[in-house]
Specification:
heterodimer; A: 70 residues; mainly alpha; 3 helices; B: 352 residues
């Protein structure tokens, strides 16, 4: 198994937390999310059951439904 | 005191089960690599399986088999199917479904004991009985591996893939219990925990479709990015989902780690101390959303998808379309999640 981070892209590197916070345009994304979620109803809407249930965001890796039968 | 003894006891039981799994996996790899004839190797695997299942009650084993057979294929089967499709025979992967599902069942049972899941097999029948069933599930996977209708080198490669998947997953699970470090250590934990089984699924799928063992092994390069994608999604659910479970172990969750390391870390830590209280838990979840933790998870998802696409290009597969389609679906979902969290279309296009 290749070691950590070797498989990450040079064009689009995985930033660490500090780099992420300091970077544009990610800082702008975070600013917009912060504004959006200041409205408690917007936060509640995303936290309601099923709101994160999109493909690739499974409930548990081993029990995520197969796209073949789901 | 009683609870801490019980917790310690469960932890010890899980660690012992992982240690046994490491031994079984290693022996399976050695049998696959070193035995003189394929028939001897298959026979030895059946013998190991017989020893493994002897501690579990027959009715519990029967119930476990029924449960596994009735369950829908998991996302790991999708990896096997995409790998088989990459070698022009998606349907061939069906032969890998039950061996993989049995292996996953064994790992899930032990993982639930380690994580002290409030609802799991161990809470239904007891920790010792559940771990015996886990051994039985592992035994079943080995028996099915012994029976795989692959010839010569392909069968040996499949058996080695199963053995390696068991061993490396167990090592990753043990590593998880020691993690308390920084950013790189977090990703090392992720890369040790989930990708080994992804690699096994990919290799079995490719072998089932007739890929030669060397080409099938190359597909395991996809395991780390695919495993990371699974783990990032898992962490989002475990932090933000309706049955969020990671609040007891925040160092193991990407989103919590992000916010704990930032300017609102103390505030989150205080909420974490009271996370048994539903209102504190909800306040902590909203803090994660406002603090950019979900944004970081989406960034990690997009960076991983980019890396995955590069590896797929390098592999020059006969038919990379199934993997590429999967990347596009993930990317579309990440974009949608950005939009539904208030990010403007202009910003979405800048970061995707």
């Amino acid at each position: 198994m290749p070691s950590t981070l070797l498989t990450m892209s040079k064009d689009r590197p995985l930033m660490n937390f500090e780099e992420f916070r300091a970077s544009e345009p990610m800082a702008e994304v975070v600013r917009q999310q912060h504004e959006h979620f200041r409205d408690e109803r917007a936060a509640e809407a995303l936290l309601r059951p099923g709101a994160l249930a999109v493909r690739g965001w499974p409930e548990w890796p081993a029990l995520a439904p197969s796209k073949v039968t789901a | 005191m009683a609870r801490s003894r019980a917790v310690e006891s469960h932890g010890l039981s899980a660690r012992a089960a992982w240690a046994a799994a490491i031994a079984v996996g290693r022996v399976t790899e050695l049998v696959a690599a070193r035995t003189v004839s394929g028939e001897s190797a298959r026979s030895i695997l059946r013998g190991i399986a017989e020893s493994l299942r002897c501690t579990a009650a027959p009715e519990l084993l029967a119930s476990m088999r029924e449960r596994v057979l009735q369950r829908q294929p998991t996302v790991f089967f999708d990896f096997a199917r995409d790998a088989a499709a990459a070698f022009d025979d998606a349907n061939a992967a069906s032969i890998a479904h039950v061996p993989l599902a049995a292996l996953i069942e064994a790992i899930k049972i032990i993982d639930d004991v380690q994580d002290e899941e409030p609802q799991c097999l161990a809470t239904e029948i007891g920790v010792d009985a559940a771990l015996n069933v886990a051994s039985g599930a592992l035994a079943w996977s080995l028996e099915l591996t012994a029976a795989l209708p692959f010839a010569g080198a392909s069968w040996r490669a499949a058996a080695a893939a199963i053995g390696r998947g068991v061993r490396e997953t167990a090592i990753g699970q043990l590593f998880e219990t020691t993690v308390d470090g920084g950013f790189d250590e977090f990703w090392q934990m992720v890369d040790r925990k989930t990708p080994p089984l992804v690699a096994t699924a990919l290799e079995l799928g490719a072998l089932a479709a007739g890929a030669d063992p060397a080409r099938a092994a190359m597909l395991t390069r996809l395991a780390i990015p695919l495993g990371r994608l699974l783990q990032i999604g898992d962490d989002c659910h475990d932090a933000l989902g309706p049955e969020a479970t990671d609040w007891r172990t925040p160092a193991l969750n990407l989103l919590m780690r992000f916010s704990l390391s930032g300017p609102r870390g103390d505030e989150l830590a205080e909420l974490l101390r009271k996370s048994e209280d539903p209102s504190s838990l909800r306040a902590a979840q909203i803090l994660l959303l406002r603090d950019g933790a979900l944004g970081y998870a989406i960034h990690a998802q997009l960076a991983t998808l980019h890396a995955l696409a590069e590896v797929i290009d390098e592999l020059a597969l006969p038919d990379p379309a199934p993997f590429r389609e999967s990347i596009e679906r993930h990317r579309a979902d990440a974009e949608q999640l950005l939009r539904s969290s208030g990010v403007s279309e202009e910003s979405v296009q800048r970061v995707v």
